[in-house]
Amino acid sequence: MLQQVADLILVVDRAGVLLEVEHQDARRFNADLSSHIGEPLINTMTVESEKKISELLLHKQSAPSRFRQVNHVVEGGDDIPVRYSAMPVNSKQILLVGQSLVEIASTQQLLMRTQRALENDFASLSQAKARYQMLLELSNEAVVDIDVTTGKIVNANAAAQRLLGRFITPLKGAKFPQGFDKPSTKALEELMVLARTKGRAADLAVTAVDKSSSFLASASLIQDVSGSTLMLRFTPMTESHDDISAASLNRWIKTIFSDSPDAVVVCDNNGNVITANDALASMTQVASVDQLVGKPVDNWLGRSSLDHRLLNSNLKEHGEVPKFSTIVSSDHGVNIDVEISAATINHEKLPYTLLIIRNVQSRLNVNEDIVAQTPGAPLKDLVGRVPLKELVRESTDLIEKLCIESALEMTSDNRASAAEMLGLSRQSLYTKLHRFGIADGSDNNSQ
Fold first, then answer.
1. Residues 262 and 358 both lie in one domain
2. E-state strands within 153-213
3. How would you classify residue 285: left for phi > 0, otherwise alpha for psi between -120 and 50, otherwise beta?
4. Which range of residues forms the domain containing residue 200?
5. Same domain, 227 and 265
């Protein structure tokens, strides 16, 4: 019966010498004490367990003693915790009935590690919250956090206190929006609904209730395990047209062109995106236009980098380029045919290039002019009367000629650039120019 409830049974004499060992389940007790038979039992124990074993050996009552936990030393491994109860066999021998605590100890260690991990996570979260609060307090923008469920202000930085505190007292716990004129209040309500639905809402111009100041308001949805909050930012509209900055450009582009079907892009002199509206994100198939800010335009614009160079050279020469045909490419390999109208704005503090990109994919159909320009009768009338090989050869020649003429026109008759655009060597281009009678094939404009 003892074997069914015990993991380990030891027989020792009154001097504590190990006489017999029996393991019930070797998987639960992975230390072999049989090799220590004839030795003092304390040789297998940790130092702090020796006193407990000595107390068990002094037990002389017929009833089992209370359990005492000891630790067996395992060479090259972790100590094994076992709780023993002593029961006299006769005047010279004592039976020690042991239950392994390895599983309990493992569970305790797991709980301790989990607790330490939770404490570390809590400390990291507390530090992140403290840094977030510090950044909020240092920000010049008024930032207000609103509970999505109750619609009440749960947090506001110092700038928000200065901006809204004169209209809303106290600020924390107050219903929002208030402190704005009626049109602005209604617009803010719609802005918050849009942010809850889409995750963010573009800048919106609002005016204080006393008409003394105006702001640009934007909203973003923040979700975590504790719930959802809306973060609203209010920026005073104090920038004049002479005090231009990347931040003000960003706000004005997203405010004025937020619903435009055409992509509106502002680039610096190096061709890097400063800001753009959400239509560009739709064309390039990215989650947010912020992913394109600071990156070169030719990452997604043009059949090759030549398109962007051509656009830039024309901008430098003329200051503006209307209806420049090219493509917008996405990371997913989807190309969209577009038309670009571009202009250079030579502002002394922040010179930039403005691009308006229009999707013309829907209006591009098969060019019926190709058939109309086919020498002789219309193409459908030639089927059956002219061998297929001749039809294909003539059509191919015509398409080649049209492509070469278009490339020369786009590059202002720069044949080196036209050859690069068409993917031809210069010699091949000159041969085709001579063949189609477009020019004599001399390199007059290759420089």
1. yes
2. 153-156, 200-207
3. left
4. 139-236
5. no
**Residues 41 and 26 sit within 8 Å (Cβ to Cβ):** no
Name beta bridge partners: 359: 338
Contacts with 237 (C-beta within 8 Å, 6 or more apart), sequence order: 205, 213, 214, 215, 216
Two tokens at 115? 């607790």
**CA–CA distance, 102 with 180 (Å, rounded to integer):** 67
Tell me the pLDDT tens digit for each residue of 23-82: 765 555 556 677 788 888 888 888 888 888 888 888 777 778 888 888 888 776 778 888
Instruction: Give me 199's structure tokens.
Output: 């995750």
- Give 160's Cβ-side CA count (13 Å radius): 25
The Cα–Cα gap between 42 and 53 comes to 7
Closest CA to 31 of 78, 86, 91: 78
Give per-residue pLDDT as tens, 354-380: 889 988 876 654 444 444 444 444 555
pTM flag (> 0.70): no
CA distance 38 to 261: 92
| The one-letter amino acid at 135 | L
Q: What are phi and psi of 317, to 5 degrees?
A: -80, -40
Compute the distance between CA of residue 396 and CA of residue 401 in angstroms, rounded to an integer.
9
- What length does the chain have? 447
Query: Which residues 6+ apart lie within 8 Å of 117 measured at CB?
Result: none
Sign of CA dihedral 43, 45, 48, 49: negative
Q: How many CB atoms lie within 10 A of CB 70?
A: 25
109 domain residue, yes or no: no
Give dist(CA 220, CA 290) in Å, integer. 14
Give every CB contact of residue 36 below 8 A, 6+ residues apart in sequence.
Answer: 18, 21, 43, 44
Domain boundary among 363, 392, 419: 363
CA angle 46, 52, 57 (to 5 degrees): 115
User: Which amino acid, residue 142?
Assistant: A
DSSP state of 36: G
Query: Domain count of the chain?
Result: 4
CB 404 within 8 A of CB 424: no
Report d(CA 322, CA 126) in Å as an integer: 54
